[in-house]
């Protein structure tokens, strides 16, 4: 690896300056999709999050979330094993997914919006997610959702690209418990 690439990699792994500790035990990343028109829910068991968010100054906020794609949790072990394969998340080649914010703004009434770049399976797309923030039991709970097209990220290739079997629309939901301010 050449020095500029190494330096960029190290910078991406460094915590955000001023980032608030995230209580991962109270945080979660979940998703809902439809298979044969039946809702199927899942989550990711392992992820890291560097978040700097102040509801009084949302425009200064930043977030960097890295997801261990092999930590996918689905209703059955067979479904989890299938999701790790090449046609789905291809966790051997793409062990991580990443969201990095580019901007945040207030929408009013404890509602906000984050814009950023989501990378899944080597594909990066600009995304926008609305979210809310509220104080609860000593943390700031940041909760929102992000609709995505799984096919835009090459999730479910080959015979799985048939949207009659698995719908293209996936609803990603996040809940981050931020300690301190």
Write a brief structural summary:
It is built from 2 helices and 10 strands; from the N terminus they run αβββββαβββββ. The chain has 181 residues and is mainly beta.
Task: Please describe the structure with a list of short key phrases separated by commas or semicolons.
181 residues; mainly beta; ten-stranded antiparallel β-sheet; 2 helices; disordered N terminus
Task: Give a written overview of the molecule.
This protein is mostly beta strands and 181 residues long. The chain has helices at 3-13, 77-84, and strands at 28-35, 38-44, 47-52, 62-68, 72-73, 96-108, 111-120, 123-136, 139-149, 169-179. Strand 7 and strand 8 form a beta hairpin. The protein is elongated and about 50 Å long.
Helix-strand topology string: HEEEEEHEEEEE
Proportion of residues in helical segments? 10-25%
- The order of strands across the largest sheet is 3-4-6-7-8-9-10-1-2-5
Return the average pLDDT rounded to an integer.
90
Main sheet record: 10 strands, antiparallel
Structure classification: mainly beta
Tell me the number of strands: 10
**Any idea what the radius of gyration is?**
17 Å
Terminus-to-terminus distance? 38 Å
Report the uncertain regions: 1-17
Task: Classify the beta-strand content into a percent band.
Answer: over 45%
Query: What overall geometry do the principal axes of the alpha carbons give?
Result: elongated
Number of helices, where a helix is a run of at least 4 consecutive DSSP H or I residues: 2
């Amino acid at each position: 690896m050449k020095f500029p690439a190494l330096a960029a990699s190290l910078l991406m792994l460094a915590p955000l300056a001023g980032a608030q500790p995230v209580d991962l035990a109270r945080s979660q990343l979940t998703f809902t999709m439809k298979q044969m028109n039946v809702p199927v829910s899942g989550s990711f068991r392992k992820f890291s999050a560097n978040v700097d968010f102040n509801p009084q100054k949302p425009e200064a906020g930043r977030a960097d979330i890295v997801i261990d794609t092999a930590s996918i949790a689905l209703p059955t072990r067979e479904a989890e094993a299938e999701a790790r394969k090449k046609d789905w998340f291809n966790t051997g080649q793409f062990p991580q997914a990443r969201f990095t914010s580019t901007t945040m703004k207030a929408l009013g009434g404890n509602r906000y919006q984050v814009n950023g770049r989501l990378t899944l399976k080597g594909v990066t797309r600009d995304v926008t997610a609305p979210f809310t923030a509220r104080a609860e039991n000593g943390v700031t709970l940041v909760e929102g959702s992000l609709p995505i097209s799984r096919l835009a990220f090459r999730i479910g290739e080959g015979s799985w690209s048939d949207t009659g079997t698995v719908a293209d629309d996936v609803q990603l939901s996040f809940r981050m418990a931020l300690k301190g301010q």
